[in-house]
Amino acid sequence: MLADNIRNQSDRLAEEIIRIRRRIHANPELSFEEEETARLIEKTLDSWGIPHDRVAGTGVTGLIKGALPGNYLVLRADIDALPIQEANSCEYRSRKPGIMHACGHDVHAAALLGTIRILNDMAGQLNGTIRFLFQPGEELLPGGALKVLESGLLENPKPDFMIAQHVYPELPAGNFGFRPGAYMASTDEIYISIHGTGGHGALPHLLVDPVLIGSHIVVGLQQVISRKIPAGIPAVLSFGRFDAQGSTNVVPPVANLAGTFRIMDETWRARAHKEIIQTAEGIAQSMGASVECRIVNGYPSLSNDPALTETATSLAVQYAGAENVHLLPLRMTGEDFARYAQIIPALFYRLGTGGDKKKNPVHHPEFDVDETSIRHGTGLLAFLAASLTKKR
User: Fold this and answer.
1) Does 258 score more than 80 pLDDT?
2) Which carries the bigger pLDDT value, residue 356 or residue 166?
3) CA–CA separation, 61 and 42 (whole Å)
4) At which of 296, 320, 337 does a domain end?
5) Is the pLDDT of residue 356 over 80?
6) Looking at the structure, do residues 46 and 145 belong to the same domain, yes or no?
7) Is the same domain home to 347 and 224?
8) What is the DSSP string of 156-210?
9) Which residues pair with 100 in a beta bridge?
10) Do 129 and 39 contact (CB within 8 A), yes or no?
11) Residue among 108, 135, 151, 162 at smallest CA distance from 38
């Protein structure tokens, strides 16, 4: 059976792929600076005799052509790291101060390499065409996905499907998670400057206090979520920064807010931007101040193609067993894979990487994975690719 064959191959490759993952983990690179990582991927592909090209600067891509007619599928892994100081003490911990693979992109890249090796070895039995894509810059706006799309790589022909898997410490190794339809949120950045009149804190009647006004804006903007956006649409507005360079008795003339707005509906995303600006301006004007409000569009919301997700979930049950395949909850984090999903039937699913000591969330300085998860991720991705390229 195909599943058994791929499972055996992923087990055989496991040690080699784990070594590759550890090399990537120990040598992390920030978004759009992944030159060393790209060279390691290229060297590995060269050693296997698999042709490849560069895309979007530090991205690597190539094709595996099956001997039989079928669908055109793209498999994507991101390769950049985060500006986080690693706190783990493992032998493969980051060698670069202040940079860490805290979101599992090292796992994504290594698992995709293993998948490529399996698929290339069985190309004579494959249908269709499979493009592999090691994408740079997922963690930094405007995101590497946009640069890939601008390169024209995924045009003429346009792929039939596109897939990515992502680590998920909430599930143990050997488990997988899927969710059809809306899954992840858009990721917009909100910047608000409140301009008032500073002065002595003991003389508030002479001031237009931007700190007080900023506080009202933080509270007032929550009404955009609770009273403007329909209750059935998940949305979040959070401010993580409030800068006012005054003192205990000095009120500054300017205060600055910075936050994030996330939602799972693109129509209401645009409407909410207008509501945020109008509400902030209205509060400031009613209290005698002025504001500058800037909204930076981030990644769009991510929606998994329902039919593709249903098919892939059934295949995952065949490969891993029904007890190891789960329905994922909605998630308000974001992903630039969403850009692909806007124009290509796409699936973004989760690879369980948790274990007894591997449950720290992503973006945590002690994040790590149960490395047995890598062979499971390698195997399922190869099985999905070999199955989905067959015309149905």
Assistant:
1) yes
2) 166
3) 9
4) 296
5) no
6) yes
7) no
8) SSPPSEEEEEEEEEEEETT-EEE--EEEE---EEEEEEEE-B-EETT-GGG-B-H
9) 82
10) no
11) 135
User: pTM (2 decimals)?
Assistant: 0.94
Per-residue pLDDT of 358-378, as tens digits, reads 778 999 999 999 999 999 999
d(CA 307, CA 173): 26
Q: Count Cβ neighbours within 10 Å for each residue of 62-83 and write b for 16 or more, e otherwise.
A: bebebeeebbbbbbbbbbbbbe
Q: Assign residue 288 a region: left if phi > 0, alpha if psi is -120 to 50, beta otherwise?
A: left
The answer to whether the peptide bond before residue 234 is cis (omega within 30 degrees of 0) is no
239 with 254, same domain?
A: yes
Closest CA to 63 of 133, 149, 144, 156: 133
Same domain membership, residue 245 and residue 111? no
Asked whether residue 275 falls in the same domain as residue 328, the answer is no
From 296, 313, 335, give the residue that closes a domain: 296
CA atoms within 13 A on the CB side of 188: 24
Q: Is the domain of 292 the same as that of 317? A: no
- Under DSSP, the state recorded for 82 is B
Surface-to-core class of residue 317, CB atoms within 10 Å of its CB (0-12 exposed, 13-18 middle, 19+ buried): middle
* Section 96-101 average pLDDT: 98
The secondary structure element, H or E, covering residue 11 is helix 2-26
> Which domain does 196 fall in, by range?
188-296
pLDDT at 255: 98
Residue 122 and residue 66 share a domain = yes
Counted domains in the chain = 2
CATH of the domain at 173: 3.40.630.10
Q: How far is CA 320 from CA 24, 95, 164, 198, 267, in A?
A: 27, 35, 18, 64, 38
Q: Is residue 129 located within the same domain as residue 270? A: no
CATH of residue 196's domain is 3.30.70.360
Between CA 108 and CA 189 the distance in angstroms is 27
The residues annotated as belonging to the active site are 80, 138
Residue 89 sits at the vertex; the CA angle it makes with 358 and 100, to the nearest 5 degrees, is 75
Pairing state between β 176-178 and 161-172: unpaired
Token pair belonging to 386: 């070999």
